[in-house]
């Protein structure tokens, strides 16, 4: 009997420990496997916080699915974007600022990852999560239908950031295939 742990795009299967096993033992096993120092575990929408509590108290049972969310130790500062203004120029500036931040802060990290021979899962995960966050911020900007320039900038930004995510995913798949 086992439990499934979702970690990004991966699905990990672990043997279900005894119901009296404290959560700290599950965390330790996951940490040893993933090489992550800090992460959140989520089950049925709740964050599992108390490591001394037995897994039975969280109602974890055979065929349960846990979500593992890594916590990055030193998140890169992201520019504070102003609330969407009522002008097209302000929206275009907001989109351009987000793309410039990705180019300045994340593209060099992505290039470094692509050039290394040994994959660093933590770094790949961190860069992937930050790219996804940038993509979600761009997606949250909704220019009015009549703002053709803002809509075109948004579309180009989404394509650029998505292409970086695609490149990272292809690199991760290639690294995983090489390890087999």
From TrEMBL:
A Pfam entry, by short name: BAG
GO molecular function, one term: adenyl-nucleotide exchange factor activity
GO biological process, one term: protein stabilization
Domain of life: Eukaryota
GO cellular component: cytosol; membrane; nucleus
Domain BAG: residue ranges: 88-172
InterPro entries linked to this entry: BAG_chaperone_regulator (IPR039773), BAG_dom_sf (IPR036533), BAG_domain (IPR003103), Ubiquitin-like_dom (IPR000626), Ubiquitin-like_domsf (IPR029071)
Matches recorded under SUPFAM superfamilies: BAG domain, Ubiquitin-like
Key words, A-Z: Chaperone
Stored Gene3D superfamilies: BAG domain (1.20.58.120), Phosphatidylinositol 3-kinase Catalytic Subunit, Chain A, domain 1 (3.10.20.90)
Protein's name in the database: BAG domain-containing protein
Organism of provenance: Coprinopsis marcescibilis (Agaric fungus)
Lineage summary: Eukaryota, Fungi, Dikarya, Basidiomycota, Agaricomycotina
